[in-house]
Design goal:
With 246 residues, the chain is α/β, with parallel strands linked by helices. It has a single domain, classed as NAD(P)-binding Rossmann-like Domain (Rossmann fold), CATH 3.40.50.720. Helices cover 39% and strands 10% of the residues. It has a five-stranded parallel sheet, with helices on both faces.
Amino acid sequence: MGNARGVKEVGLALGRDQAVGDQELAEAIAGEVKGVACVADITARADVERVFVEAGALFGDKLRGLVDIVGMADIRSIPDTDDASWNRNFDLNVRHAYLAIQIGARVMTNGGSMVFVSSISGTHSIENEVSYGAAKAALNHLVRGAAHELGPRNIRVNAITPGFVRTPRLLAALSQDFWTGLKTYIPLRRAADPSDIAKAILFLASDMSSYVTGAVIPIDGGLSTVAPVPHIPFAPGMQTRVAARS
């Protein structure tokens, strides 16, 4: 649950670490956000059903929020992507969301909000992330479709698409030189902190966004607005003109 530490108030947070069954980690995170630990493999239907049974027992009809912060990229080029890698990306980035929406909608009888964490990879092409990006793009469409279907039941469904976030996992995987160079590509000139992502999640999970549903919102410091073109050395005030031909 990479960004869960920054979220202070959510109805239900679902997470899956590399090792299923890490009760100690779950309890540590729950303690930080004043939550209740519930360990599960959320790619397994029976486990997701159990999570919602436990949540229902704790909150009853007051359960009106779900924040799904699940996802991990299996990064490979297309020629190197095997069936296992493809399936893993879709299990870890789409299947859990489908199960959470389907089962959660049955429990949230008084309406509520569902928030999912997608990725800039689901809206833009990023090197060696074709299968991961395809899974995130599928998640984005799932969110929009679910918002359409569940709207009449007063259940809002939204997603955010972070760019680069300084999570412990990425800080360990990428060099300081990378993070320094990355700033030049981002209009706000910095990568996101987990708290930046948490604030957007909190907005969508709360009544502050009571008329927002089906939205897939970029939280990337403006990265997705920039066209990947080299610097064009036009002189100040220079005008370009295409000559007319008869």
